[in-house]
Amino acid sequence: MAINALSPDATGRAGLSATHFGRKPGRLTMVIFFAILIAGLLFTGYSLKQDVDDMGTVVTTWTPFVLLGVALLIALGFEFVNGFHDTANAVATVIYTHSLPPGFAVVWSGFFNFLGVMLSSGAVAFGIIALLPVELILQTGSSAGFAMIFALLIAAIIWNLGTWWLGLPASSSHTLIGSIIGVGIANALMHGRDGTSGVDWSQATKIGYSLLLSPLVGFGCAALLLLAMRMFIKNRALYKAPEGNAPPPLWIRAMLIVTCTGVSFAHGSNDGQKGMGLIMLILVGTLPMAYALNRTMPADQATQFGAVAEVTQQALMRSAPLPAPADSRQTLSDYLVSKQAGPDLIPALAVMTGKIGNQVASYGSLSKVPAEAVTNVRNDMYLTSETIRVMDKNKVSNFDADTQTKLDAFKGQIDSATRFIPTWVKIVVAIALGLGTMVGWKRIVVTVGERIGKTHMTYAQGASAEVVAMFTIGAADMYGLPVSTTHVLSSGVAGSMVANGSGLQMRTLRNLATAWVLTLPAAILLSGSLYWVFSKLF
Prior knowledge:
Structural class: mainly alpha
Oligomer: single chain
Radius of gyration: 25 Å
Helix content: over 70%
Number of strands: 0
Number of domains: 2
Number of helices: 20
Distance between the termini: 36 Å
């Protein structure tokens, strides 16, 4: 039931000709594709071996490495699917308008996706991880942790592939968020708790708003931008649809290439992080001695770390001079699950702050933390950081300015110790995204160019949609929020069609509505069911 890229469009007009896309991939192209794929896998294996060897770890069993390999393949598979499901939107306009040859456009976009991934901050990656149940994050190397990883990734891949095959414009971001929520709800129900307690709903709501509002921003801003262009730019060539295989005028061509480049970079910096965050969870769970702590942190920061922890602990103790609970770690864990703050929360936070500072100071640097202590140190840091974040969001305690400043500085230090992404992870994610783009771009080009509006997309419409998508995705990345490239760009094209008086195809509107309505509940149900099954198997 997949849509044929060369078939007539929904209005009965002739669709794109075969020559529009150039020749089918030749033998050399396929050789290069698989060479890059194999090189990426070999590079992943080599990087893992180097990191493990640097720790001086003696391998006594290969079971964790087998599980790690399977989990990494699934995670990279998610990014590959994301590539042909979402990334190809960036090249749709330049290929449809003949601004760049298809092969060159895909390579060009892939390169700037790569740069976007490499220069990303990691804020989106760790923002998504914050949705997961805290008890599963603290035991990612356990059977429950692997059940969580496998369930949410496989559910996301199944739904993304299914909707792509059926021609539904679903969002990979929507799907992943739904999968995470499904695992959280299932985990809570399996432990006898209310299903709503398994998800950080404040974080989910924040992400939900970004996914909901970004297409509306794309629609409205693209429409306004097109109207502004028509008012100030009177060159008629800009408002024509592509004819034959001739490229547009040079200045229009340059504008479309620049916007394609911007969307590619923004997409890499945003979407690429989703897979990176999950890969880091996998690495921390299977090889904590190498990836639980940022061992590249300079040794001279250890002294500063201890000093900041000490003054922060003292400030917290002055804010709540009460006896500390018997188990401070459990107090923080319970708070993150229930979001109910008791009188012992701040004393427990003070104890954990001092404990972390003493641990780091005693070892001298993070690189000297012994393998057997790494997991506990990381878990203490994660619990403390998340507690500070949730307390601040829920306004649990009104600290004075000095205490709040010290608390923020301490949180920044422990985040830099635990929230890091190795360069090789960024590289392999970028490769997976790029290879996925090479597979799926043809269907996306026709969808964006001919299946949204009742007329073929003009140069101005393509440019306005791409400009808005570039800035919308870039802004979301700055705030650490995930957005859907598919929805932002397609809604931008739809907005430009409405502003131009072209009208929209009802089939497209139905598909968009269907995807919006079904994706979240389907992903929640699918991942929750898979988590239950995998929990019984592992």
